[in-house]
């Protein structure tokens, strides 16, 4: 009788230890995944900051051209101000979407600014403007890679949160799915390209 009772106690202790080790590993895996998503999001923000800094330097170059169209420049300055004012909580899909929209608006306004620059050949030949053109292409590529890395980190984390039995721990400790960085609205449509060749 005593031997059976000891085996039962040992089995209970063994089961407790197994569950404890599993719980610790699962919880630590969720923490690691969460921290990785935050780190990778920091890389996304760093690359957007690099783009904003490049935009700022070329804006200064353009502002020095006294006869440049001020309304177009004002639009870019307003879009830049809004883009840098958005604070992102990666646990809140709405703030991520707002950030993405503000960055898209900045890029769009800057695209219009660059189209207007075409009318100012003296401005286009300045060293600052040429340096900008070289650097912005690399920066846009970095942003794209950083967004892809972020989405991979989110996918890995979300799988940990949703898969059984980790989903039990995730529920107990309030780990929730994180939002993916989505493509800009309308980007799924192919651009309408027309060649007027005669």
Walk me through this protein's architecture.
Helix 1 packs antiparallel against helix 2, helix 1 packs antiparallel against helix 5 and helix 2 runs antiparallel to helix 3. This protein is rod-shaped. The chain is 76% helix and 0% strand. It is mainly alpha-helical and 198 residues long.
Keywords:
198 residues; mainly alpha; 6 helices; 0% strand
The sequence of SSEs as H and E is HHHHHH
- Overall number of strands: 0
Mean of pLDDT? 83
Structural class: mainly alpha
- Helix share, percent: over 70%
Beta-strand level of the residues, as a percent range?
A: under 5%
Radius of gyration: 26 Å
Low-confidence stretches: 190-198
- List the total number of helices: 6
For the largest beta-sheet, the strand count, sense and barrel status come to: none
| N-to-C span | 101 Å
So what's the overall shape?
A: rod-shaped
Question: What's the topology here?
Answer:
Blueprint: H1 2-63, H2 70-85, H3 93-117, H4 121-124, H5 127-162, H6 166-172
In summary, what is this structure?
With 198 residues, the chain is mostly helical. It is built from six helices and no strands. Helix 1 (2-63) runs antiparallel to helix 2, helix 1 runs antiparallel to helix 5 (127-162) and helix 2 (70-85) packs antiparallel against helix 3.
């Amino acid at each position: 009788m005593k031997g059976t009772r000891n085996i039962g106690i040992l089995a209970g202790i063994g089961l407790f230890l197994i569950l404890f080790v599993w719980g610790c590993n699962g919880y630590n895996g969720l923490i690691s995944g969460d921290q990785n998503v935050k780190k990778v999001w920091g890389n996304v923000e760093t690359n957007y900051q690099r783009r904003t800094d490049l935009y700022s330097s070329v804006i200064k170059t353009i502002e020095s051209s006294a006869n440049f169209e001020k309304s177009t420049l004002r639009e870019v300055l307003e879009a830049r101000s809004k883009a840098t004012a958005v604070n992102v909580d990666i646990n809140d899909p709405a703030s991520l979407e707002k950030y993405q929209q503000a960055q898209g608006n900045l890029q769009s306004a800057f695209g219009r600014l660059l189209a207007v620059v075409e009318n100012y050949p003296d401005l286009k030949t300045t060293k600052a403007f040429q340096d900008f053109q070289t650097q912005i292409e690399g920066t846009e590529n970095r942003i794209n890679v950083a967004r892809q890395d972020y989405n991979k980190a989110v996918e890995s984390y979300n799988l940990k949160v949703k898969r059984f039995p980790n989903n039990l721990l995730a529920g107990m400790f309030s780990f929730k799915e994180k939002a993916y960085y989505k493509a800009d609205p309308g980007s799924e449509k192919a651009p309408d390209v027309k060649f007027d060749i005669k």
